[in-house]
Write a structure and sequence with these properties.
The chain is of the alpha+beta class. It is 40% helix and 19% strand. The strands form five sheets. Strands 3, 4, 5, 6, 7 and 8 form a six-stranded antiparallel beta sheet that branches. Strands 10-11-12-15-16-21 form a six-stranded mixed beta sheet, with helices on both faces. Helix 9 packs parallel to helix 10 and helix 14 crosses helix 19. The protein is globular and about 75 Å long.
């Protein structure tokens, strides 16, 4: 049977067609798709070529790992201020605080004069169970001396942390006892808490301080709310001051507890990330409680998501100073050597549509890094009129004006208190002398201070101990000239700072916060709002219709 000539050459025709298709497809991909892949390949190839050339031909030997370690942060810094590289050795420490627990011995410590001083021993933790006490000075770890210049926070963490169930031998020197005492401590999981304080400010008002947003923050919040409810809490203040953020999902979960159904909490969007809206479920148990949120210039990221959701939905009153202004979303991406990058993949927007990210330029943006200092210099911390709004106007559900482009501006402004500030006080605080004195005073008087079990008892006792004169003598021995007139002018500030640190050293973070809140202007303003029944914002005058687009 004869084979048709067309069929005979069919395989060759198909092959030629495929080759032509590939050539044409490549041409169009290169010329009409921006040649993106080739750009990426050529860029990475050039980096690889450069490293190979350095390794092969550079005049001196080079540690290539160190070179790459230094280069990656520089590359990321050219993107935005919050895309960062975290080395393999720092990954665990970076994640511990947000993950809710870590494996270790269960102590808080400070380093003084090249020696670890145990500041607090976690109740029921491994160190306490082994017999260690606050005030102990660690002098050896695993029978190897650990004092001197090698004692750093990083090295101490490396030696004391470790897998659960492993043992570490800690040698300490204890006041009043001779020689070195050794304790074998079995490492265990140590809980880290996002909520550092929850108590009743008065008979009706509950207070909760959230210091970061971690994996367990929502659960801690629900527990704290339940306990305050048992104490007949009718009003609530959530303190987000100096909370630099954390996991966005935790802020969303908490906002959901206070909002009616189908209210936008936040939405995110990026070049490669489609818009995603996060809406309230309506299942929250605290949708009607009068609410105040406290913020300041240290409140960032997830803190601003929560504050923005409450403000834009007119659900509560925001009190304090303008927040930091971080509206970028990072994703953690692990690298093969155990290091990771946090890469900005989207921006987040408050319910009214505003992005609260403050302006930045790529590369080494000095203005961005010094923004808080510039705010201070411009007087923004002291006068509401000094706040500069760089972004456009937006409107809440009931038509109140809010601004994008630079943090959350509070509904009620609280200036930083400058009464009594002197150059002597500034030098004492910034030099660390107040912290050092407070710790050494605590260490020297631990037995006497143990008799007091509350912050008020400790403060009353300390008032009788002539603390300021002792501090001035201590500071002068450490290089700060005594200035009696300034000491008297700053008396209240010195007393508050020193007493608060001694209370922290002897009791805990909750007692410390209760003491600081006792005469805090923001707390006073909060209680005034509740007493006047003004926690729920009112619509602006002469605006019949809400302008919010939510």
């Amino acid at each position: 049977m004869k084979i048709n000539k067309t069929l005979r050459y069919m395989p060759l025709l198909l092959a030629v067609s495929m080759v032509l298709g590939i050539i044409i497809g490549t041409f169009y991909a290169n010329h009409f798709s921006g040649n993106r892949l080739n750009i990426i390949n050529s860029g990475s190839n050039r980096l690889n070529d450069l490293l190979h050339i350095i390794d092969d031909q550079y005049v001196d030997s080079v540690n290539m790992n160190d070179l790459v370690e230094d280069a990656i942060p520089q590359i990321l810094s050219e993107l935005d201020p919050h895309s960062v590289y975290i080395s393999a050795k720092d990954v665990q420490a970076t994640n511990d605080e947000l993950q809710g627990s870590f494996s270790g011995v269960g102590i808080e410590f400070v380093i003084r004069k090249d020696t670890i001083h145990v500041q607090n021993v976690i109740q029921g933790g491994p160190a306490e169970n082994a017999g260690m006490m606050a005030g102990d000075k660690i002098v050896s770890v695993d029978n190897t001396p650990f004092v001197g210049e090698k004692v750093t926070n990083e090295e101490a963490m490396r030696r004391l942390k470790g897998p659960r169930g492993t043992k570490v031998v800690i040698g300490v020197k204890r006041r009043g006892q001779s020689g070195e005492k050794k304790f074998t401590v079995t490492r265990d999981n140590i809980a880290t808490h996002s909520i550092s304080c929850a108590y009743m400010l008065d008979k009706k008002t509950g207070y909760i301080r959230i210091k970061n947003f971690g994996e367990n923050t929502y659960g801690e919040m629900i527990n704290a709310l339940a306990e305050l409810t048992q104490e007949n809490c009718e009003n609530l203040v959530i303190d987000l001051r100096d909370n630099q953020g954390g996991y966005m999902v935790s802020a969303i979960q908490i906002a959901d507890e206070f909002l009616p159904k189908n209210r936008r909490i936040v939405y995110t969007q990026g070049r490669k990330q489609a818009r995603q809206d996060y809406m309230s479920s309506g299942h929250g148990s605290y949708q009607d409680i009068p609410l105040v949120i406290l913020i300041n210039e240290g409140s960032a990221s997830a803190s601003e998501i929560l504050a923005g959701a409450i403000q834009d939905n007119d659900r509560g009153t925001v009190i304090g100073r303008r927040s930091f202004g971080k509206g970028l979303v990072q994703q953690q991406i692990g690298l093969r050597d155990g290091s990771m990058i946090r890469l900005t993949i989207a921006r987040y927007y408050s319910p009214s549509g505003r992005c609260i990210q403050k302006p930045y330029s790529t590369g080494n943006d000095k203005d961005y890094e010094e923004d808080l200092l510039q705010r201070y210099a411009s007087g923004e911390y002291f006068s509401e009129d000094s706040i500069k709004h760089t972004g456009p106007e937006y409107h809440t559900r009931i038509g109140r004006t809010v601004y994008g482009g630079g943090g959350i501006t509070p509904d009620i402004f609280i200036p930083e208190d400058t009464v009594g500030i002197t150059t002597y006080y500034k030098e004492a605080a910034m030099s660390g002398l107040i912290l050092q004195f407070a710790f050494e005073y605590t260490d020297d008087n631990r037995e006497s201070l143990k008799r007091m079990s509350t912050a008020n008892e400790l403060a009353s006792y300390l008032k009788r101990q002539n603390i300021l004169d002792k501090f001035a003598t201590y500071a002068e021995k450490n290089g700060l000239q005594r200035r009696n007139l300034m000491l008297q002018k700053s008396h209240a500030l010195f007393e508050k700072y020193i007493f608060s640190r001694i209370i922290y050293n002897m009791l805990d973070e909750s007692a410390w916060m209760e003491y600081l809140n006792d005469d805090d202007p923001a707390i006073k303003a909060t209680l005034n709002v509740f007493n006047k029944g003004k926690a729920f914002p009112e619509a602006p005058a002469n605006k019949e219709k809400a302008k919010g687009n939510q």
